[in-house]
Design brief:
Protein name: NADH-ubiquinone oxidoreductase chain 3
Function: Core subunit of the mitochondrial membrane respiratory chain NADH dehydrogenase (Complex I) which catalyzes electron transfer from NADH through the respiratory chain, using ubiquinone as an electron acceptor. Essential for the catalytic activity of complex I.
Keywords: Electron transport, Membrane, Mitochondrion, NAD, Respiratory chain, Translocase, Transmembrane, Transmembrane helix, Transport, Ubiquinone
Number of strands: 0
Largest sheet: none
Shape: flat
Mean pLDDT: 77
Subcellular location: Membrane; Mitochondrion membrane
Distance between the termini: 61 Å
Number of helices: 3
Main location: membrane
Order of helices and strands: HHH
Structural class: mainly alpha
Helix content: 55-70%
Strand content: under 5%
Amino acid sequence: MLMILLLSSLIILILYYLSVLFMDNKNILEDGKKEFECGFRAENMSRLPFSMQFFSIALVFLIFDVELIIILPYVFNFTHVWMFSMMMILLYLGTLLEWMEGSLDWYY
């Protein structure tokens, strides 16, 4: 076990030093060293207006996506059909509630 650990560490170090040796530092631009955050440079525009409609739709999508991930194992287990049916009804009612409430509407 110790031999495998030492051998893998040695291989990692050799590969690291080979990459540093062959890396061409002259072609790296200054923009390549800076972070890139959602389509704008963070040092220039850190306080952009935030769309609450986008946030609410993203949150609804995230919640329903997690619910679908929870439901997925019950699709293949036919002994818990009632659990799958209940989750699907709740998911449908939640989507209907969000739609009737107007949370899914997008205004320009």
